[in-house]
Amino acid sequence: MIRRLLPLLLLLTAAVAVPQLSKASPDPASVAIAYEKDPANHIALRHHPSLTALLTGAADRAFDAPRTRSRCAEGTPDITAVHGDTEELTGHYRADCATDRQPRATLLDFTVWRAHADQRPDLALPAWGTAGNIGDRSRIELMGHPLVLIKGQRLRDFGSWSAYVYDPASGRADRLHLRTPGGSGALANRRPRGSPTPTAVRPSWSASSSRRRSPLPASPANSSTGANCEGRAHPT
Question: Taking the CB of the first residue and of the last residue of the chain, which one, N or C, has fewer CB atoms within 10 A?
Answer without folding.
Answer: C
